[in-house]
């Protein structure tokens, strides 16, 4: 994999305005695998100008032609899927089979879904004596995190382009090589110059310049709640559109009638997947008191099997963050049943799969997003208490409910303050709206709901 030394702006790789660079490190062996430019406000300015210049032409391109370009982009991602998987593995550290199936596979699905939606979406509708046009919002500033490097990019760029918007992307500093590969794919797919632009750089410099740029019409951000709050404030002050996909602390609620072993095993796999770096992970497992110790034993056995096979977390900073949460769990009196703060390997940013029992709902590890392979098992006495605990954090992104009968699980799921709930291990649906209640965010991604975030309506009365 090779790193580009420039920014992808206006359909070409251009030298960065400044000389600073960012080192890209492989989290498995801690070796530097590349360097990308650390963009500044000047680079962001060039990119926004290119996106603005490309906007009228792209917005006026018939949706079927935009759809064809998105289909071409999907085809390039398919053709380069091995390279994508290898790049994500090199800079994020996830095991290659997971990178192939999820990090490369899901963006292909999502890009394909927007190629179809662009061709079929009703961009014009009749409402009584009015014709309502759904028009692109304009220039989009997209700021993405490292946890699913390509998915987070495609989940913003594909609907934005389908809507007729143009984009400037500032990807996470830990995973810029995947973003550069995406820019190559955009070029190869034949998208017009300036429709998509890439500025690599640090969050507080390039990210902030993009979020604050007066000529950006919509800021779409995924990442931490702290930065999201700030970006929301900036957008609010400028009266511009904003979409925020922030953290989660989702509950996996196992009702007494459920298949306990299945619910626990799937629950543990969900938390360990991607080394726990998933905003929608079910990091709190809620178990009825009558089944509590059995569930703890099952979870401990399941987690112990993973060992260091889950891969490292993304960086030394993230590893120390996760370790300090594990230490806090012990200090606050939770029972450590598997794992702990020590690294399972001398080299690489590995964290042991960790399971805590006797976690009470008010403990820090039950309230804050850890973003590592750490599961907290919480006891409940009755259904009312389970609802209270499940809803008892500032977040509301995802969750799971398990019961013998689907109807029982659905009735419980309807009481959860959260944007997504998997019933008895329901499968990922790339067309279902994804996003948060409460402080998990504002707006939705994926499917037609994700597309409508990038549109604004104009009504003509007759
Ligand atoms: P972050 O919020 O700092 O970074 C996310 C993106 O925002 C990156 O591209 C970053 O460069 C950019 N950014 C940072 N500061 C900015 C600023 N002032 N203005 C504009 N953009 C800025 O997240 P992080 O440091 O990578 O991770 C910290 C924690 O955030 C994680 O431990 C986890 O809890 C959470 N997180 C959540 C998600 C999610 O999908 N919801 C993803 C990644 C991280």
Give a verbal description of the structure.
With 462 residues, the protein is α/β, with parallel strands linked by helices. The protein has two domains: 6-246 and 439-461, Aldehyde Dehydrogenase, Chain A, domain 1, CATH 3.40.605.10; 251-430, Aldehyde Dehydrogenase, Chain A, domain 2 (3-Layer(aba) Sandwich). Helix content is 42%, strand content 20%. The chain has helices at residues 41-59, 63-79, 81-92, 96-120, 149-163, 176-188, 203-212, 225-237, 260-272, 292-304, 316-331, 364-367, 383-390, 406-413, 447-452, and strands spanning 6-9, 12-15, 21-25, 32-37, 124-127, 130-136, 139-143, 166-170, 196-198, 218-222, 241-245, 251-254, 284-288, 335-338, 354-359, 374-380, 399-402, 422-423, 441-442, 455-461. The protein has a seven-stranded mixed beta sheet with strand order 14-15-16-13-12-17-18, sandwiched between helices. The structure holds nicotinamide-adenine-dinucleotide (NAD). Nicotinamide-adenine-dinucleotide is lined by residues 143-147, 170, 172-173, 203-204, 207-208, 211, 222-224, 227, 230-231, 245-247, 279, 321, 369, 371.
